Amino acid sequence: MGEVVWTTLRLAGLTTVLLLVLATPIAWWLARRRAWWKEVVAAVTTLPIILPPSVLGFYLLIAIAPQSPLMGLLHPFGIRTLAFTFPGLVIGSMVYSLPFAVQPIRGAFEAMGPRPMEVAATLRASPMDAFFTVALPLARRGFLTAAILVFAHTVGEFGVVLMIGGGIPGKTETISVRIYQLVENLQYAEAYRLAAGVVVFSFLALLALLLLDRRADEAVR
Question: Hey, which end of the chain has fewer CB within 10 Å, N or C?
């Protein structure tokens, strides 16, 4: 049981950190650009919310299979496939949770408006300096929301994780997959305990988001 919890927490933590790094430039570009085709990019980053996990998991499994063009680029480095591996799980989780990182951060950048960056420019701050010293601190609420959502969403993943990882004990088996296997084996008592833990965790994550929103609203007032 400990291995399952550790694998799930490690997957959720790594996915959260990597997604915050990846989603930040995407969200900044979406918030600042006025190109008509930016909504096409926004739709692509939001697509995992709409797609069934089985469909997304299937295409990701094809992409990281040994015969895929993507894996062909990695063959010279000794990497034949990422299917049924922990790195493959991380990639799948990042794609599946991408909207939960991009949308809150984009919203925070848009709520900031152009004025702070214009003021920083008048003080001769470079665009990079202004981004790190002005934009990021002002958007911290969006980053906190994104981190909580991504972490909680990854903990509860099932379809994508099962298709890409296969639920290999000690390697790619997560809490959601273990619950499914326990129910299949009619081990309801242990399934109850694990499911109850996920419910409590989900409630605490939602409560943290609500308290964060309330605190931010009070600060504005």
Answer: C
Domain span at residue 117 reads 2-220
What's the alpha-carbon Rg for the chain, to the nearest Å?
20
Check which CATH number belongs to the domain holding 81 and give it: 1.10.3720.10
Q: Please give the DSSP secondary-structure letter assigned to residue 77.
A: G
- The continuous run of DSSP H or E covering 205 comes out as helix 188-220
* Rounded Cα gap, residues 62 and 176, in angstroms: 22
Placement of tokens 């420019």 in the chain? 121
The CA-based angle 30-37-50, given to 5 degrees, is 75
Written as tens digits, the pLDDT of the chain (221 aa) is: 678 889 999 999 999 999 999 999 999 999 988 887 888 999 999 999 999 988 999 999 999 988 888 888 888 888 888 989 999 999 999 999 999 999 999 999 999 888 998 888 888 888 899 999 999 999 988 998 899 899 989 998 888 998 898 888 888 899 999 999 899 889 999 989 889 988 898 888 888 888 877 776 665 55
CA distances from 102 to 10, 93, 183 (A): 21, 14, 34
Query: How many Cα atoms are found within 13 Å in the side-chain-facing hemisphere of 74?
Result: 13
Q: What pTM was estimated for this model as a whole?
A: 0.88
- Nearest-CA neighbor of 116 among 199, 108, 4? 108
